[in-house]
Amino acid sequence: MMSNVTPIFKFDAKKLLFLREKYGCSLRELADELGYSTTTISKWEKGKSVPSNEIVAKLATIFNVHNNFFFTLNAIPNVDGTIFFRKGAVLPKKNKVQAKAKTQLFALVNQKVTTAFDLKQYELYDLAEHHEKFEVLSREEIERKAIELRKLLKLGNAPINNMTNVAERMGIRVMFSDLESEKIDAITVWIDRQPYIILNSRRISSTRIRFNLAHEIGHIILHSKYPQKLINDTDYHRVLEHEANQFAGLFLIPDRSLALDMDRNNMRFLIELKRKWKISLQALIYRGNEMGLISDQQALFLRQTIYRNKWRINEPLDRSISIEYPTFYKAAFKYLNIDIEKYAKELSSETGLKLRDIENIFSMNYEESKHKNVLRLLK
Q1: Nearest partner of 108 among 343, 349, 328, 353, judged by Cα
Q2: Contact by Cβ (8 Å): 165, 331
Q3: So what's the pLDDT on residue 8?
Q4: Are 198 and 177 in contact (CB under 8 A)?
Q5: C-alpha angle 121-122-125 in degrees, rounded to nearest 5
Q6: Coil, helix or strand at residue 105
Q7: pLDDT tens digits, residue range 156-193?
Q8: What are the DSSP E strand ranges found in the chain?
C-alpha cells in the first residue's frame, strides 16, 4: 500500500528556479556549467524529474548555499504586496529579479526569527493612506503625514539622529546589501503584510542613504495600497516618486525648522546646516528654493558651485557623517540574552543559507553602533 505522506527531504523544484533567477543565470549557462541539457534542467525546475545528490551538491556550490537548502521545509516567501524600486535610470529586469529575490531570503530569515521570539512587526498606522485608486496628493497632505509620523514617533521638530533606527522602531525590517547595480538606491517589498527595505550598500553617502530610507518610508505611508500595475505605470510612477521625495524632505527637516534655521544661504552656511540635519546640500537647496528662502538665481549659483567643485556625487561631510546601520536583530538578541553568533550558525544549518548571508541579514558584519532604545524594538 502506497503512503500519501510527502517526504520531508523532497527536492524543492521551486528553489532551483528561484536561485537561478536570483543569480541571473540562464538555462543555457547552467546547462553548460553542469554538462546537462536545458531540457533536463527545465524538468528539474518543473518537478518532472529530480537531480542526483551529486548534482544537488554541484548546484549548491554554484549558487552558494548548503545542499540542504534544496530539501528543507522552509519555503521561499511569496511577494504578496507592492514593490517599490528607487532607481536612477531604466533598470533591466534581471536586476529587479535579483533584488526581489534578496528580499525574499531576507523575509525567510526574518519570519523564522520573528515567530520564534515574538518580535515587533510593522503596525498599520492610522496615518497610512488606504486609497487603492490613484490620487494626486497635495504638498499640504504630504506635509501633514510627515508631521503626524514625527509626532507618533515623538521626534519633535529636531534633527533625526538615526533614520535607520526610526524605520526599525516602526517595525520595518531594514538591511544593507549589494544590489548588483549602482542604478538601484533601494527596494521596498511587502511580504505577508510586513515591509522590508534593502538599501544598496554601493551607495556610501550617509546623507543619501538617510534620504533614500525616508523616501521608502514615504512609499510605505502614502502608496502601499496601490496595485502593482499602477506603480509600474511610467506616468503614475513619476508622480509617486515625486510624492515620496516630498515626504522624505519634509520628514527629515520640517518647514518650520528649516525656516528658523536658514537665515543665510551661502554655501558655507549650508554646509553647517548639513552637519546639523544630516541632509544633502542638494536637498537643502531644493527645499530652501521651494519655500522661497533661496531665490531662483541663488539656487542656480549654488548648484553651479556644487557642479564646479565636483560635489554632485561626493559632497562635503559625506565621509564624516556616519552611516546608520541596522541594529534591530543585535538589540533584540542582546535583550533576550541570546548568543547571536551561535544562533546565526543554527539558522544557517536549518535554512541551508550560508552563514555569511545570515550575518548580513543580522547586520553582524558592520561596526557596532550605540543603541539605547532596545525595549522600543520589542513587544
Answers
A1: 353
A2: no
A3: 53
A4: yes
A5: 140
A6: helix
A7: 999 999 999 999 999 999 999 988 777 788 999 999 99
A8: 83-87, 173-177, 184-191, 194-200
